[in-house]
Amino acid sequence: MAFELPSLPYPDTALEPYYSARTFSFHYGKHHKAYVDNLNKLIAGTDLEGKSLEAIIMAVAKDPTKTGLFNNAAQVWNHTFFWSCMTPGGGGRPTGKLASLIDQAFGSYEKFAEQFKATAVGRFGSGWGWLVLDKGVLKVVSTPNAEMPVAQGQVPLLTIDVWEHAYYLDYQNRRPDFVQAFLDNLVNWKFVADNLAKAG
Ligand code: FE2
Q1: What is the pLDDT of residue 160?
Q2: CATH code 3.55.40.20 for 96-198
Q3: Are 169 and 156 in contact (CB under 8 A)?
Q4: Among 16, 80, 90, 187, fewest CB within 10 Å belongs to which?
C-alpha cells in the first residue's frame, strides 16, 4: 500500500493573506507531493514497504547509506505535521494549561515568541523551527534540512517550515516577517495542546 499525499486540513485559500493558495499550490501540490512520490519509489520492493511512516523514519534515521530515504520520509512527516500547525484565525497567545506551561518554561508568552522567532530565523539555510517536549521540558529547537525531533527522541508540538519554498512567494527574502505572521495569525494552538496531551 503506497503512501498518499494527505488532504490539507482546510481549503488552500483559508490562510490568506498570511499564506496564499499560490504558495500551497507549489509547497503542498509540488514539494510535499514529490516527497511522497520519492518515498514510494524508494521503498518499493524493499522490506520497508507496508511499514508505517514513523517506523520507516526510525529504521533509517541513523543509517548513513539511507539518507535519501530518510530525507523523503521525514519531509513527508514534517509537512503533514506543519499543515496542522496552522489554522484560519490562529496565532496569538495560547490558553489554559499550555499557556501556563509556556510561562513556566520560557518566562512568558512574549519570551517564548522571541525565542521561537530567533531560532526559526537563525536556522542557516533550509530547515525547521520547533516547539518540542524533551524529557518533560518544553524547548524551542531548530533542525536542518529534513531532520526532525522524533528521530532524536523529542516530542514535536509545533513546527514552522523555514525552507525558502515555504515562504518565498508570499514574503520573498523576509523570513522574519513570515515567522511573525505565523506566530500572530496562523498557529493552531489547539493542535499543539492536543500533541501535548497525547505525550502525557
Ligand atoms: Fe516545505
Answers
A1: 98
A2: yes
A3: no
A4: 16
Could you state, in order of their start, the residue ranges of all structural domains in the chain? 21-84, 96-198
Burial category of 183 from C-beta neighbours within 10 Å (exposed 0-12, middle 13-18, buried 19 and up): buried
pTM tops 0.70, yes or no: yes
Residue 161 Cα to ligand 1 middle (Å): 6
Q: For residue 200, what pLDDT is reported?
A: 73
- Phi/psi for 137 (5° steps) reads -110, 135
Asked if the domains 21-84 and 96-198 are classified in one and the same CATH topology, the answer is no
Q: 9 C-alpha to center of ligand 1: Å?
A: 16
- What is the structure's pLDDT at 152? 83
Number of C-beta neighbours around residue 42 at 10 A: 20
Ligand 1 center from residue 81 Cα (angstroms) = 11
User: What distance in angstroms lies between residue 79's CA and the mean position of ligand 1's atoms?
Assistant: 6
Which three cell numbers mark 123?
536556522
pLDDT tens digits for range 63-118: 999 999 999 999 999 999 999 999 999 999 999 999 999 999 999 999 999 999 99
Query: What is 21-84's CATH topology?
Result: Helix Hairpins (1.10.287)
Residues of the chain with pLDDT under 70: 1
